[in-house]
Amino acid sequence: MTSKNKQVVGAYDGFKVLGLPYKQGEDKRRFSMYFFLPDAKDGLPALVEKVGSESRFLDRHLPEQKAEVGDFRIPKFKISFGFEASKLLKELGLVLPFSGEADLTEMVDSLVGQNLYVSSIFHKSFIEVNEEGTEAAAASAAVIALRGLPPLRWTLWLTTHFCS
């Protein structure tokens, strides 16, 4: 991916940040992809550590100013990641859907919803950048179980898909 337009950039102590905004058509939300480049050739591990350990690091280091950066290139890549999210969601305080007190009646056309609960949630996402642009998608699946009976499971897929 290359571009000669003005870009959102920032220079900080030990690294630079390049932000690429995405066009969304009629969608009023604004999405951007940010690339963090350490100044030192072997500086990526230290930068990753800094991003993960400093509170509100991203809030303080996402640039807003546009500037001409000259010719730049971003190599093509594809990354995907998936995980079981139930434990993390519970740690963040979302416990009711996983409990015996969950009431999922608005998710089904039957009173059986009173006996349903979320047994687990899975999430998977990917992003691909190439010469033509970017494609990304994310999906979450909730495994719904029926209380008090042998395991009967349904899966609900929630998908978000972005293209530019």
Automatic annotation (TrEMBL):
Source taxon at top rank: Eukaryota
Domain Serpin intervals: 10-143
GO cellular component: extracellular space
One Pfam family from the record: Serpin
Alphabetical list of PANTHER family matching this protein: GH10112P-RELATED, SERINE PROTEASE INHIBITOR, SERPIN
Protein name per UniProt: Serpin-zx
Sequence similarity: Belongs to the serpin family.
Source organism (scientific name): Quercus suber
InterPro entries registered for this protein in UniProt: Serpin_dom, Serpin_fam, Serpin_sf, Serpin_sf_2
A single GO molecular function term of this UniProt record: serine-type endopeptidase inhibitor activity
